[in-house]
Design goal:
Blueprint lengths: L3 E6 L7 H12 L3 E6 L8 H21 L5 E4 L5 H16 L3 E5 L5 H11 L1 H6 L6 E4 L2 H9 L6 E3 L21 E6 L8 H14 L3 E6 L5 H10 L5 E5 L3 H10 L2 E4 L8 H8 L4 E4 L4 H4 L6 E4 L4 H12 L4 H15 L2 H17 L1
Parallel strand pairs: 1-2, 1-3, 3-4, 4-5, 5-6, 7-8, 7-10, 8-9, 10-11, 11-12
Helix pairs in contact: 7-12, 10-13
């Protein structure tokens, strides 16, 4: 009988990183069960909202009946109000049944944590999440922040997943006189999409042959489209959401990956870009600083200043060693982020905790 159960989003094709992560884990493991929680539809209307409330209540009832079968429960909160309240109740239920609990922290907004969570939710965290048997984080700096307000559990630093279909199978070729910048993420302002456009405008001014691909959709999509039109930003292609072959082509057609995000856990897109042999220019957020080697993999920037990003891109355009950076990134991603490796490490970690 399986001893471990992981709580994950109910949507089969969840848009979020947690859903995508566990879609892959479910395919590759036979040692873990999964319990789906939360809304079952992406639609937003009053009927769906009412259904969601009913689902949340029935999820808790269902959980009470199945949790006695397991020895270890894994919750996957992000640092948001709704997630904190939702998962704190699952932890309380698990502890009532004397089950071990692992908290796997996903999205982590340090600004929200420092400005709101430290004061408003510190007691909730200490009474529930910090009573877990083990904590998994996507970066050392995330555990450090948790430790500062009372988390003293044993912890493991993990990563998100690179699927083998986004691992380049041959050396990437860079053509002189062509340089394509890729931004691929949800089009939200906190992902740095406006700074990415500002940066591109600076680079385009000095290197007219540069072009840009923007992949993704989100609340800022209309604003991005308006900026491109109103400011006459040339040679920018909006791809919308990309999946499967279209995502592969977006990475394949690019010469670098630009990611000036304000906060992250461990962004899949950075791992995917590396797997596709792209030099990366990104901010020092989430788990990225734990592995990223400045200049060797691209450039990591302390803040979202567009001029700093532009200077980093200048260095890549003028770099005659792009093939070496590309090959290094691809090999590193294959050795550290590939799905079979990450899932095996997660299995071993959870089994070890359940048996201790």
């Amino acid at each position: 009988m399986k001893r471990i159960i992981i709580l994950r989003p109910a949507l089969k094709q969840s848009k979020g990183g947690v859903g995508n992560y566990y879609d892959i884990v479910e395919k590759l493991t036979e040692l873990i069960d999964f319990f789906r929680i939360g809304k079952r539809s992406c639609m937003k209307n009053k009927l769906i909202q009412l259904q969601s409330i009913i689902y949340y209540i029935t999820d808790y009832i269902r959980f009470i009946f199945i949790v006695p079968r397991y020895s270890l429960v894994v919750v996957n909160p992000s640092m948001t109000k709704n997630c904190l309240y939702r998962d704190s109740l699952y932890i309380r239920i698990a502890k009532i049944f004397h089950k071990k609990v692992v908290v796997f922290w996903r999205g982590f907004n340090h600004l929200y944590f420092n400005s709101v969570v430290r004061d408003k939710y510190k007691k909730l965290l200490n009474n529930t999440f910090f009573q877990a048997n083990h904590t998994i984080v996507l970066g050392e700096n995330i555990y450090k922040s948790l430790h500062e307000i009372g988390c003293n559990t044993p912890y493991t630093v993990s990563t998100t997943i690179l699927t083998s279909d986004l691992l380049l199978d041959s050396s990437k070729q860079f053509k002189p006189g062509k340089f394509t910048i890729l931004f691929l993420a949800r089009l939200e302002k906190d992902k740095g999409i406006m700074e990415a456009l500002d940066c591109y405008k600076i680079v385009k001014r000095d290197y007219p042959f540069v072009n840009m691909l923007i992949a993704g959709f989100g609340n800022a999509f209309t604003d991005v489209q308006s900026r491109i039109d109103n400011e006459n930003i040339s040679d920018v292609q909006l791809l919308g959401n990309v999946f499967g072959e279209s995502k592969y082509n977006a990475y394949h057609d690019a010469d670098m990956y630009l990611f000036p995000s304000y906060y992250e856990g461990m962004p899949n897109s950075v791992l995917e870009a590396m797997g596709m042999g792209l030099p990366v220019v990104t901010t020092k957020v989430g788990g990225i600083p734990d592995f990223f080697e400045d200049e060797k993999m691209g450039y990591i920037i302390n803040d979202c200043n567009p001029e700093k990003f532009a200077r980093a891109i200048y260095s890549l355009i003028e770099n005659d060693q792009l093939e070496q950076i590309s090959e290094y990134n691809r090999n590193y991603a294959e050795q550290h982020f590939l799905d079979c490796i990450v899932v095996s490490k997660l299995e071993n970690c959870l089994i070890s905790i359940s048996e201790s």
